[in-house]
Automatic annotation (TrEMBL):
Residues 1-15 have a biased composition (Acidic residues). The lineage of its organism: Bacteria, Bacillati, Actinomycetota, Actinomycetes, Propionibacteriales. Signal peptide: none annotated. It comes from the Bacteria. Residues 396-454 form the HNH nuclease domain. This is HNH nuclease domain-containing protein. Residues 1-23 are annotated as: Disordered.
Amino acid sequence: MDQLDEFDEAQEPADDGGQVPPAFLWEPCPDSDAEAWAARPEVVPPHIEDELTFAARSELGSLRAVEVLAVIEQRRAVMRRWETDQVLLAAHLAATYETMPGVRAADNTDRDRPNRVALAGEGAPSVHEHAPLELAVALAMSPDAGIVLMSHGLELRYRLPRLWERLKAGEVEAWRARQVAGQTLKLDLAVATRVDELLATTKRAINKATALDLITEALLALDPDEAARLEAEKTDGRGMFVLPPVPGDSPAFTEVHARLDSPDAEALEATVEKLAGILARQLAAEGRDPEPWQHHRATALGILADPWAAAELLETAGVTPSRVTNGTARVYVHVEADDLEEWATTGTDHGARAERFGAMTLGLVEQWLRRRDIKLTPVINMAATAAVDGHDPPERMREQVILRDAHCQGPHCTRPARSCDIDHVEPYVPPDEGGPPGQTTPANLQVLCRRHHRMKTHAEERYRALVRAG
């Protein structure tokens, strides 16, 4: 089922949630309707919020549901503040450790052993070798953990200053900032600086996956040859691996892992989905109990081991093998026109971006295009504001919303937009029921995963979408 074509707010969730902070903020609804707002669930009085934060554990069981949520939010804020402070204080300790009483200067003792250590990349100062060890003691963590924490703090402070300021301001959680710092430690200063600049403008989640993707983008901009070398190096991992049985596991099943070219993986998944759908329908037609969808996918993949059995299954469903993957296995690649022109004229490779797969060289894109039928999509005007009266947006408007939002707009949900529903921010009212014209417009559309779509629809009195952040 293509969820992008589904607009029924009452549908059951199709699958699990996904992977980037929301572009919409959510909050309890205001009193636009005084009577409805007066009947809203009781909220926590502001004067007891501090008391709830420090409520004893013996008192937690007596809290009302709304108070439970308030305590969770407040204590999470305290924990987040402490995690951030650890990073800030680790970097500060590194800079001031030698001023402590009883600490000997790091460069005046054993000449055969360096007493200052470089914990972060180029541009960050070295630190006294004992500083991270004392940090670890103070935090009751292992020495190695103390070294890693201090290295992340120094990396952020001296090589990722924009992300450091966002961390200090509370805009980025410490664990997210540390995931980025862990990936930039070995980069040249120019590349790390470029990554920091890209992080300041990205709408994606600040985490390890984003960092790796942006590192590739930075390399493509600053050192295309190195980016191409690293990309080629990773192709050595291709293969299919039948894993040995895990002790204690059932001998009835075996795990199979594969690392394929991305277009091949997309085509394989499309075929498996098609076969799984046929198997599910056959099961229903026989009146048998339904099975989990992943069970059907596993069976379908096994059937592909026998091409004749796969062809027979397709024929029983009235599907010819040539129609299985045509038009369904898609890889969305976004390329800037200027970059494409420079690639064609000078061979300079500034790269492209493929949805789900991240940044890549134009050389890799060219390899894909040489061996596959392609579909070129016209440039979409992301600033378009055209509106239509019908409920479902036209294809170009839907694509515009998908590209703009990138992921589910529910709080902290990162499910990719192409796996989400298209939702009206302000609920759609049919014109024959008094609805105004032009309700379907990019400004009034967002992508929501099925779970958050249902939550917005059926808990409408508690949540609404606010103005678009940024």
